Write a sequence for this structure.
């Protein structure tokens, strides 16, 4: 059913109590209470302070217990040592949310940290959600809420701002006030908040007052929850992220090239791309991006970054063209039809190319004719207008001439008005109409780049690969045995032969490699492998073989091999005297004249877990530093994107007489490495360097694996990954009691249209019983939100009619559950198409939901059912659910069932009372 979000009382309360309100001029309670009153809060305000009977003309109460009614939110502004006791008072009063603005907690040392932990523990024990401590506060301008000590208030608007830094919020508020920017919500979380970023994002994702979200991030505590919430929010509205620490030293990894190449900021960047968010690098970019994205106009073409520039000045056009190259924006090539139209409407001296320079004597009519042509041209994805004030034409006149054309088109338009006195009038006209209006060519191009990046990132967000590719023949059990043997031997590093064995188990071709402990053994192995061969050092304490001269190539005979063995042993003694020489690996010499040396690897990020890396390989890998990273699991789309973000990608195509490499084989290796990262969590680092690729395929010449903490096999939710793989293993064909067979499987993003059709087929009664409201359809936002889930905090199963004559893709029933904030329980809901009710489909969906929730470790499953829904009530009682009236709504029954692990019927269904009929 549709219920209010559990954070609404904290972020959009109807009543608040300010504990510590005072008239003492230098006190925090004076500043905060003053802001609350000055903001014109539309709800009820209580002042709480035993020292006052009245504060600023408002009746003051001695305690929370003395209040005439329970407020939604308690705002605490008293000294740190009083906060734990006040949280106890709030709990006794039935208050569900507290905002602690007081300082003096973890930021001041051990005693403050103890107080913070004590306050947080008491809040959790009492079921209170705590925002803060030591934060700036919360604003909700549309209801006049300003529960902060900020100097600058917030105007009402459609952008939500969430920040881990109060100082940054204060600065952004000041900047926004000057520029006329408004907010739907402003939330400063503080350092020890019980309310995570992810929960606030969940609230804002479906908040009708919010059209776009801006985040200021200093660090991520729970990568899985963060990714899930950003992906969910970005599926329905733009999310813009400003993160600090771009140039901090990343996590050091001495054991591998991959670890040294991958920095935590690079991983954060790619995580945001995968989640569908837009990252900005500076203060002033945050609102420019939010403003551009909030218009709702996005490029509809492919690739979505082709920009047409319209200007009445050549210089600004050139500046914009330069900025396009810096922002991954392509200058659109004008179509023949557009060229003909422009030639007919413009003087002969126009630029005849993009940027479209219509010359300094342009009239408003000439601007309008050119703008209409560019808006109609399918060869571009958006238009940038650059206006330079001239004696012949003013900015305001131009803006009024162009605005009707821009409004009539669905194509995104960004404008830049160069100057201030006159140009500002044009900007004002556009801003009042909701059209981005910037001050320079560079900012204009940057603004369009946010739109194109959002479209590209949306494609990444829609990718939900499974944990492994079924098309590949892999011996995952054999791979785990290789790792297990090394762990039992007390080793954290696999030698080259073991590393290659691991790759071979996952279906990656490797060069044959054997260990020789003596020169005679090396010669015998070389004779068996066939010349030429390669010798590589094997020594404990040597990480990178080339650094000690431990690699000899293209040895042609026995004498070369014997001499090579002795040479490598001597070099180790000279360059690494503390290392223990074991022998050499004798390897087949792979001779591929068209080969490109690449590197593929796995690294472990401190926040986001396993990361796949790809780039240019060879001995200069860390010097050239041409690499890109991606979060597993990968599919072919994501693998292509990973390759395309490197400079070496251009070398993979044919050039200078070299044939193109086998790209499908290279993508296959990336997918297999992704499978390895998913299926063996204790593999922390992997180097395949070089990975040799040519027109004949791909082969690993060298490999190194580092084992760390973690199990040999993943748990049910693949919790070591930042992104939950698509749980394909949960799909199963199910035979209903009426004889039909349906496919029960987890929902996918591409099910959106099928779910829309499913909803349209439901009768008004079924819609009412499912959603507890007289709905006829679901909004696009909710459809997107319901089909793009994370498979961790929420799960949804669709029942697809496998015998459908129109392709077998129609949804006949949907069941879903969402994990509650306590982490131990979940709330479910199911809907079955009217014509399919009474066939046992509701029972099958409940089997799937209960089984999945039990496997995920949830303790209880809960559903809220209208008391008049007899069929659903029968199904619930049949499944041994406990039932009671809902405390807040007597027309609703609360059904709950413990998810016990005790053995039951094979499909998890409880004993069935045959006298009861399942019509759900």
């Amino acid at each position: 059913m549709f219920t209010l979000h559990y954070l609404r009382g904290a972020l959009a309360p109807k009543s608040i109590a300010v504990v510590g309100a005072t008239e003492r001029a230098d006190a925090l309670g004076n500043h905060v209470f003053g802001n609350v009153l000055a903001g014109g809060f539309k709800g009820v305000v209580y002042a709480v302070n035993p020292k006052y009977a009245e504060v600023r003309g408002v009746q003051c109460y001695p305690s929370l217990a003395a209040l005439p009614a329970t407020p939604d939110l308690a705002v605490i502004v008293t000294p740190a040592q009083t906060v734990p006791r006040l949280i106890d008072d709030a709990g006794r009063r039935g208050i569900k949310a507290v905002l602690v603005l007081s300082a003096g907690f973890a930021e001041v040392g051990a005693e403050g940290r103890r107080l913070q932990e004590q306050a947080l523990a008491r809040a959790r024990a009492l079921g209170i959600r705590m925002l803060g401590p030591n934060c700036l506060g919360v604003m909700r301008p549309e209801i006049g809420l300003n529960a902060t000590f900020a100097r600058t208030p917030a105007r009402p608007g459609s952008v939500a701002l969430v920040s881990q830094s109060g100082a940054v919020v204060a600065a952004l508020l000041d900047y926004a006030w000057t520029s006329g920017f408004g907010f739907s919500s402003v939330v400063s979380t503080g350092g020890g908040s019980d309310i995570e970023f992810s929960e606030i994002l969940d609230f804002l994702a479906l908040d009708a007052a919010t059209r776009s979200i801006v985040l200021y991030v200093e660090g991520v505590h729970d990568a899985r929850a963060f990714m899930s919430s950003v992906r969910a929010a970005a599926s329905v509205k733009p999310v813009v992220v400003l993160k600090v620490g771009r140039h901090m030293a990343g996590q050091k990894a001495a054991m591998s090239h991959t670890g040294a190449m991958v920095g935590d900021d690079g991983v954060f960047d790619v995580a945001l791309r995968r989640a569908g968010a837009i990252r900005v690098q500076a203060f002033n970019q945050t609102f420019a991006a939010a403003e551009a994205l909030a218009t709702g106009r996005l490029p509809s073409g492919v690739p979505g970054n082709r920009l047409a520039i319209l200007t009445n000045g050549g210089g600004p056009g050139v500046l914009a063209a330069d900025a396009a190259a810096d922002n991954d924006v392509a200058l659109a090539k004008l179509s023949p039809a557009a060229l003909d139209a422009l030639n007919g409407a413009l003087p002969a001296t126009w630029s005849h190319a993009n940027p479209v320079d219509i010359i300094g004597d342009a009239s408003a009519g000439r601007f309008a004719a050119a703008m209409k042509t560019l808006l109609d041209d399918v060869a571009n994805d958006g238009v940038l207008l650059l206006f330079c004030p001239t004696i012949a034409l003013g900015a305001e006149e131009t803006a009024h001439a162009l605005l009707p054309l821009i409004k009539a088109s669905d194509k995104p338009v960004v404008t830049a008005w160069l100057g201030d006195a006159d140009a500002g009038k044009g900007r004002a006209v556009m801003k009042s109409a909701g059209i981005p209006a910037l001050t320079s060519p560079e900012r204009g191009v940057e603004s369009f780049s946010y739109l194109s990046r959002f479209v590209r990132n949306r494609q990444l967000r829609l990718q939900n690969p499974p944990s492994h590719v079924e098309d590949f023949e892999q011996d995952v059990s054999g791979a785990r045995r290789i790792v297990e043997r090394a762990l039992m031997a007390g080793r954290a590093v696999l030698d080259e032969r073991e590393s290659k064995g691991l790759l071979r188990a996952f279906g990656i071709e490797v060069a044959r490699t054997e260990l020789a402990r003596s020169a005679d053994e090396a010669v015998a192995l070389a004779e068996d492998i066939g010349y030429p061969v390669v010798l590589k050092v094997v020594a404990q304490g040597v990480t990178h073989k080339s650094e000690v001269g431990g690699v000899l190539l293209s040895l042609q005979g026995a004498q070369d091999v014997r001499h090579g063995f002795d040479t490598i042993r001597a070099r180790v003694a000279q360059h690494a005297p503390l290392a223990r020489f074991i022998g050499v690996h004798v390897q087949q010499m792979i001779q591929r004249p068209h080969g490109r040396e690449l590197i593929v690897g796995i690294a472990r990020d401190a926040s986001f877990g396993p990361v796949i890396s790809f780039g240019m390989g060879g001995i200069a890998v860390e010097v050239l530093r041409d690499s890109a990273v991606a979060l597993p699991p990968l599919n072919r789309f994501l693998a292509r994107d990973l390759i395309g973000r490197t400079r070496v990608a251009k070398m993979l195509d044919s050039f200078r007489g070299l044939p193109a490499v086998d790209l499908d084989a290279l993508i296959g290796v990336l997918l297999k490495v992704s499978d390895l990262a998913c299926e063996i969590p204790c593999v922390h680092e992997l180097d395949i360097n070089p990975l040799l690729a040519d027109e004949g395929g791909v082969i690993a010449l060298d490999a190194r694996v580092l084992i760390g903490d973690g199990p040999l096999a993943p748990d049910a939710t693949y919790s070591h990954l930042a992104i939950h793989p698509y749980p394909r293993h949960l799909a199963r064909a199910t035979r209903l009691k009426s004889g039909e067979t349906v496919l029960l499987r987890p929902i996918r993003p591409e099910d959106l249209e099928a779910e829309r059709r499913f909803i349209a087929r439901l009768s008004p009664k079924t819609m009412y019983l499912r959603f507890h409201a007289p709905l006829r359809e679901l909004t696009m936002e909710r459809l997107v939100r319901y089909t793009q889930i994370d498979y961790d905090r929420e799960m949804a199963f669709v029942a697809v009619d496998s015998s459908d004559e129109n392709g077998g893709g129609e949804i006949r029933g949907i069941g879903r559950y969402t994990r509650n904030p306590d982490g131990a329980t979940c709330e479910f809901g199911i809907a079955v198409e009217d014509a399919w009710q009474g066939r046992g489909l509701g029972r099958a969906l409940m089997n799937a939901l209960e089984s999945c929730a039990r496997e995920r470790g949830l303790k209880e499953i809960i559903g809220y059912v209208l008391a008049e829904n007899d069929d659903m009530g029968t199904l619930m009682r049949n499944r041994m659910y406990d039932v009671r009236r809902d405390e807040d709504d007597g027309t609703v029954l609360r059904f709950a069932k413990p998810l016990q692990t005790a053995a039951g019927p094979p499909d998890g269904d409880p004993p069935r009372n045959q006298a009861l009929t399942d019509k759900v």
User: Anything to note?
Assistant: The CA atoms of residues 136 and 832 lie 47 Å apart. The longest strand covers residues 683-694.
